[in-house]
Design brief:
Length: 272
């Protein structure tokens, strides 16, 4: 999204892109790992196939993996020497820890607002803005400029993250209720949360279509409007076929949300 012309595609750009990818791959290892360590008993009910819940991996091994992942995050950041990446990865690390760790004032996932804000701020805001500013200022040496792709990306991805935060708990109501996790799905029930999520995503697509219509470049306008219209229609069609009483059907729809999110990441650089 920080690309402004074809001349920006250079070897230093791709090298830095790989470094950014490596940082966040290790950060996601840490995020998922620490969540599983503190959720073993819950996952035995909700996700018994996971390594720790199933007993395939022991807690000591998992702790070693997430510790090594955290070290790699900050080792690569230190090697790069970028301020945006430093504060972005540090905030991501803090939010991930606060979300999962069962200590006083932490374990934010126990409360619906804390869980949603953790995911929205971490993925929707921090990840987007820190990597964009790294590329714009550190790699390309430009002044800070919040471009159209970044504005649309931050808003739309934040909505997606809100949906992920809400919907991920729909298949997990049984375990969450047993262990005192106050998810919105446990409070309102799966049907209401399901349709809240569908409506939020459709709103995101409508916003993207309107935003795309204001573009001064015809090719960008056409791609943005057409692609988001197709995705919105596909989402609505899929939502009509979901069986809310079938856990596998719900899990399939949850994975569709992630696929739509990654499709959005591919479209955002074309917004101009």
């Amino acid at each position: 999204m920080a690309i402004e012309s074809f001349s920006d595609f250079s070897l230093p750009f791709f090298v830095d892109l790989l470094k950014v990818a490596a940082i966040f791959v290790f950060l996601f290892f840490y995020t998922n790992g620490i969540n599983q360590i503190f959720d073993i008993e819950i996952d035995k009910i909700n996700k018994p196939h996971l390594p720790l819940a199933s007993g395939v991996m022991d807690k000591t091994t998992a702790t070693a993996i997430i510790s090594a992942s955290a070290i790699m995050v900050f080792a690569i950041v230190n090697n790069v020497g970028s301020s945006p990446l430093l504060w972005g990865s540090f905030l991501g690390f803090l939010i991930s820890t606060a979300y999962s760790v069962n200590l006083p004032f932490l374990r934010w996932k126990k409360h619906e607002i804390g869980a949603a804000l953790s995911i929205i701020i971490g993925r929707g805001v921090v990840l987007q803005i820190s990597t964009f500013l790294h590329m714009q200022t550190f790699v390309f040496g430009r002044q800070i400029n919040f471009s159209r792709p970044l504005i649309l990306g931050t808003i739309v991805v934040s909505i997606f993250c809100t949906v992920v935060a809400l919907f991920k708990d729909v298949p997990d109501i049984e375990g969450d209720k047993k262990f005192g996790i106050r998810s919105l799905a446990a409070i309102l029930g799966p049907k209401k949360v399901f349709w809240i999520c569908v409506c939020l995503l459709e709103m995101a697509y409508i916003f993207a279509i309107v935003f795309g219509a204001t573009s001064s470049r015809p090719w960008s306008k056409l791609i943005t409007i057409l692609s988001h219209s197709v995705l919105a229609l596909m989402l609505w069609k899929q939502s009509e076929s979901i069986n809310l009483k079938d856990k596998f059907s719900l899990q399939s729809f949850y994975m569709l949300i992630w696929k739509l999110l990654y499709a959005e990441y591919m479209l955002l650089p074309l917004v101009r």
